[in-house]
Amino acid sequence: MSGTRFFKFVLLCLTIAAFIYLMYVLFLKIKAAAATISFMPIIITSAVVTCSVICTAVVLGLAICFAIYLMKPSKVIEGEQKVTLDDVILSDEIKEELRMICNDISQEKKVMFEKVGFKPPQGYLLYGPPGNGKTLLARAVAGEANISFESISASELVGKYVGQGVYHVRNFFKREKKNAPCIIFIDEIDSIGAKRNSIGHHTSENCNKTLNQLLTEMDGFNFNKGDLTQKK
Fold it and tell me: What are the BP-aspect GO terms (predicted)?
């Protein structure tokens, strides 16, 4: 848990402790006042106790839910810095081309493209052996364009059972459309996107359906919605 989350958690615990203490003090004062009344002291005391218990239970329940939320690991790596093209060793010509791409996917260019009805490329294919910096390059493009970056392995989109892969692909793109404009980096896409297999086994059929859904989502992931897909 990060320092900020830990501070919030400690502050929450102190707030709960203060609330319980105030309820206890209030209970003692009302109990003392009820003792001086000759009628219905038991009813008043019972009502105060019941309200105190209910309020305390509600606050503790909310505190537990909030604590669980704070304990959940963040998707953003702590200490991760923004990466731009200046952090990547490339030739000046390649950097210039990449900056043109970043300019094309910027919010300002999006408005201009919508006015003239122009539709730029919807995705880019990064090819190369493992470890040559494809992920870093995609992250740098996102940082240069100042848009969000989401990386996912193609294996995470494939399901074990028929229809599961289609469900994963549909939900993933549905979630990322809410984060647009963004760059989606699909790692090892060739594991499911190389070619369609011959139907003859339920595994091949499942892969084909997953691939078809992926192609459908990528085709509908157009620039007018501020989305961009990169494949590795």
Answer: proteolysis
